[in-house]
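Case study B.
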Amino acid sequence: MLKISNVETFYGKIQALRGVDLDVNQGEIVSLIGSNGAGKSTLLMTISGVNKAKRGNIVFNGENIENREPHKIVDLGICQVPEGRRIFSRLTVEENLRLGAHANEKGKYFETDIKEVYDLFPVLSDRKTQRGGTLSGGEQQMLAIGRALMSKPKVLLLDEPSLGIAPKLVNQIFISIKNINKEKNVTIFLVEQNAKKALELADRAYVLVNGKVTIKGSGQELLKNKDIQAAYLEGGAKN
Amino acid sequence: MEKKDIIQSVKDSLFTGIIALALFGPIVGLRTASKGEGLFITPQWGLVFILVGLCILGRFLINLNSARKTEFTFFSKFTSKLSSITEEKAKHLAITAILFAVVFPFLPFTDRYFMDVAIMILTYIMLGWGLNIVVGLAGLLDLGYVAFYAVGAYSYALIATTFGWSFWICLPLAGIFAAFFGILLGFPVLRLRGDYLAIVTLGFGEIIRIVLINWYEVTNGPDGITGIPRPSFFGLPFKRSPDEGEASFHTFFNLEYSTMHRIIFLYYLILVLALITNYFTLKIRKLPVGRAWEALREDEIACKSLGVNPTNTKLTAFAIGAMFGGFAGSFFATRQAFISPESFTFIESAIIVAIVVLGGMGSQTGVVLASIFLIGITEMFRDLEQFRMIAFGGAMVLIMVFKPKGILANRKPTIFMHGDKK
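Model:
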């Protein structure tokens, strides 16, 4: 469905991605783990078209998308939940959701779509008229995911949904991600620092180190991998 | 209040006094006067000491105020009350204000001078509302808004004097021209934000003014354009003695001729134009494009990731904001019947930005209050001649001290990503 081959992205002269190869198949949950600065967010931004790849191809359902404008990519059905949530903090919850529907035929199916989001995250329904900025971190994350779902994506790109959120809510959000994948049949590409959670959830996973994929396999395989355990699972906690 | 605080306040006020002395000393204290041959300096130290004393006292009072952490001033209480009223009864207030504006020309105390001031305030309200689309909603700080005002005025003047078309044909054309210039400015600044954008727009405003001065063949340079046709009341001109076979406003309605007719007509014209601007803004805010403006102000990356096209969004904001500036410009041209580049200097842009910022960014009612307050105060002190700009500055300082987010800060300050309430 989404095939990334040999993608290289630069920030000025600094190379962030050094030839990334990666596949996401229809209906999967694919996780990408890696430490700070490995290039995880850059990869997502490159897929979304916010950053442009200098070399390599990104193919989505048979179409090359590496040179498209971000809004065209959203129209094709790839939507990103950016790192740090990036809620429109002075707009209300409902206004935020409406903006998500911006790409989706200008909100034609808005009523049914928004109901689905409220069913998924009932707390957002209670806070409809509240400003986005007054929500808690977890609620903002739910809003960011809900907002992205309003564009009816085929693939949802999630950038660190657990960042800065209370552990209890992290569990809830990961359950929601699973539900979105299973019930709404949305393919998920998840980028996480919380490697354990991300690998448990994933059908398949990749490890990104210094802008290159070093290990790939099923989520369960990677959870058992000694190197990964040392670097990302127990090691991180012990050091 | 502790003794320590008082000593601190006194120190601080004296320091303010020193700064005031350094400023007022040369500016006010040394006055040049020409006596016979040559210039002589007449010192006015008395006035300087009064001004410095006022500064020290003012600073001391402000310090006392902030040390107590209470708002005892009338002004800030009044505006916060106003804020809460407008949230509850916005509709009633708006209707009352509009009704007042409609009957204003016929109130007993309204004379020619009041009407002129009212027209001026309404022009600034319209410009403020136009700029509010760009600055308040889309968050693009435009310091060259006067450029569109100028483009509107000159397009109107040139079309009307060259082709002799009526106001109602020239007005939309001037708006379209201004919008076109809005897009022209929009393209090069698409990638800029904040301070950089402000500098480029400032430059754009100056470019337009300098072109107007130097393109003598078309704009008549610094001499300006004279004899711009006055607007007519649906074909009826406001003339004392109409041409043969032509009806004028007063003969058609069997009224005694009065110059006030034209003034009152101009007043209603700008009132309607301003209200259209406001109505348009209120409506477009609820449409996807208006929401996209606000979203763009909040977070550009989030916008991109959600499929909002930032290029189109910014360009529409510039174009529509410029269009209303152009309308206001046409009105200005037809009212004055004479325009020159003199009228479109940076200070105009600055006043309009000040109105939007002091009113509370994005607040439509705030623009009205700020215009009345700033323009009204400047007019009230007209007798003080050059010192009236001090009143203008003073009014701005007052608002910024007591209402740092504008008179009506309906929109709460931005609370960032990690602003958890729990």
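The interface with chain A takes residues 288, 291-292, 294-295, 298-299, 301-309, 411-412, 414-422 of chain B (CB under 8 Å). The remaining cases will be described in the next quarterly update.
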